[in-house]
Amino acid sequence: LISTQKEGSHLEFNQLETFIQVVKHKSFSKAAKDLYLTQPTISNNIQNLEKQLGATLLDRSSKNISLTEAGKLLFAYAEELVNIRDQAQCAVSEYCDQMEGTIHINASSIPEQYVLPYIIQDFLVDHPKIRFSVTHKNTKELIDDILDGKESYGIVGAKHCCPTLEYIRFFEDELVVVVPCTQKYSAPNYTEIDLEMILSEPFILRKEDSGTRQIISERLLERKIKINELNIVSTIDSNEMIKKMIELGLGVSILSKMAVEKECALKQLKRYRIKNLSFKRPFYFVYHKNRTLSPKVDTFKNFLMHWPGIK
Prior knowledge:
The structure is a single chain. By secondary structure, the protein is of the alpha/beta class. It has 3 domains: about 1-85, Orthogonal Bundle (Arc Repressor Mutant, subunit A), CATH 1.10.10; about 95-170 and about 280-305, Periplasmic binding protein-like II (D-Maltodextrin-Binding Protein, domain 2, 3-Layer(aba) Sandwich), CATH 3.40.190.10; about 170-280, Periplasmic binding protein-like II (D-Maltodextrin-Binding Protein, domain 2, 3-Layer(aba) Sandwich). The protein has helices at about 15-25, 30-35, 40-55, 70-95, 110-125, 140-150, 195-200, 210-220, 240-245, 260-265, 295-305, and strands spanning about 1-5, 10, 60, 65, 100-105, 130-135, 155, 165-180, 190-195, 200-205, 230-235, 255, 270-275, 280-290. The strands form 5 sheets. Strands 7, 8, 9, 12, 13 and 14 form a 6-stranded mixed beta sheet that branches. The chain has a two-stranded antiparallel sheet with strand order 1-2. It has a two-stranded antiparallel sheet with strand order 3-4. A hairpin with a 6-residue loop joins strand 1 (about 1-5) and strand 2. Helix 2 crosses helix 3 (about 40-55). It is elongated and about 75 Å long.
């Protein structure tokens, strides 16, 4: 309990945690799902918090919930208080060799789908009582949320340079040209192709906010080619949909090698490197330099720094 100026009135951590999750999700129902509570409980926690503080914290007048000025003041303090509590709990737990609790991770699509499961598997060997809650966000959205104070850390597939952000490189991915298994692409028998061969092909591209698209754009510019010079026929947010469209012969793309391992093994798709052009890209654990990570998240960060990779 945290005493307020009103006699007999106390803020409770469950109220602050509810408030933080409602703000992050901009939704009572999503916060309820994330906290494993009923929506009426979420509403009661927020109402009691507002009553105890004597201030309206959330603007509920529009479809998306937003913070009032009083809410903005409380939000930063609420995060800090919950983090300090977590640090205290983890410090004692570590002392007793009982690292436990939940690590909430936001990750962009490729590391989330193809790398994070292996990381979690290896991390749980030494920390079996830790639980994970994983949410997908594209690279730009996640970095914007960290800069805006909505998140403190995450896993991304590209850098957006900013002096307040720290990036820890922990894994290297490779992008490859992915084509359908049709006669057109079956001969000659090569593993690399010239960049010029795909410039006129119907090209299916990831949306602008993705790390994959950022890397493609940067590498093409090395050859003085703008991304809009590709013959773009579709712009899609889903790797799975892009793979299916390629399989159906609707175009080609540049995707993570890991994302097409299964389809290439089953001969549903083919992949090629591009001659004389490196499409390797690192994955990063990114966090805000001015925010304190909880002990369990800090332990996870340090684990990533020494993670040997997928075995």
